[in-house]
Design goal:
Layout lengths: L1 H6 L15 H12 L2 H10 L8 H15 L6 H12 L3 H8 L6 H33 L14 H4 L57 H4 L1
Length: 217
């Protein structure tokens, strides 16, 4: 068996059963090496009644585990250590804590702080990477949004150079002339003449001379 092959070099026909370096001591050392005390105690604190298991059987199993765990040698510090190990839901943290040699409350706290510090650093780096990627992938906004109204002088490329009169806007069905240029077919809101146009007749802004009401009066 596996046990015999492991202990073949340590136990011989001449090895005493009891005493120092005896068979029982060798077997105990092998057991402790393969099933450390910290794991035995952890198994005890983690033990719960299984579905369908009789309560009396559950108690008997706890008694067996308690003997293996040497509960009579536990201190308050030990109880806190194993309660914290059993209480954590972070499996990665638990794996790190179980690697601590001869664990006590001070060592467990130190290992937990190191783990949490690393986790915080990873989270910050992850957020920073996400923000960097977001900035790279974010499309550039146009300088002039499509819904921004532009002046007719910059948009009307077909207008002859040096001309001050804009091209008329598309016609609309209306019996009244435009209040800004006095031309039929559109309103003052859609007129291509600038809003701040100065009338050469009354010198006021908002219309040109053909649409001047004071001139008509």
């Amino acid at each position: 068996s596996d046990l015999r092959s492991r202990l073949a070099s340590q136990i011989t026909p001449a090895t005493e059963v009891l005493g120092a370096n005896g068979c029982l001591e060798i077997l105990q050392d092998d057991f402790n090496g393969r099933y450390p005390l910290v794991l035995r105690r952890l198994d005890y604190f983690n033990r719960r009644q299984i579905d369908g298991e009789l309560f009396t059987d559950f108690i008997s199993k706890l008694e067996e585990l308690s003997k293996l765990a040497d509960l009579d040698k536990l201190t308050t510090d030990d109880i806190l250590v194993f309660s914290s190990l059993c209480g954590t839901k972070n499996k990665e943290l638990l794996d790190d804590l179980l690697k601590v040699e001869d664990p006590n409350l001070k060592k467990i706290k130190k290992a937990a702080r190191v783990f949490e510090s690393k986790a915080t650093t990873k989270a910050k780096l992850k957020i920073a990477d996400a923000e960097t990627i977001s900035k790279i992938e974010k499309p550039r906004q146009p300088r002039h949004p499509g819904n921004q109204r532009q002046d007719w002088r910059s948009t009307n490329k077909s207008q002859p150079r040096g001309s001050t009169k804009p091209t008329p806007m598309p016609a609309v069905n209306d019996d009244r002339p435009c209040g800004r240029c006095n031309v039929m077919g559109h309103h003052a809101k859609t007129c291509s003449w600038p809003k701040d146009t100065i009338c050469k007749g009354c010198k006021k802004r908002g219309h040109i001379k053909p649409a001047c009401r004071e001139r008509k009066a």
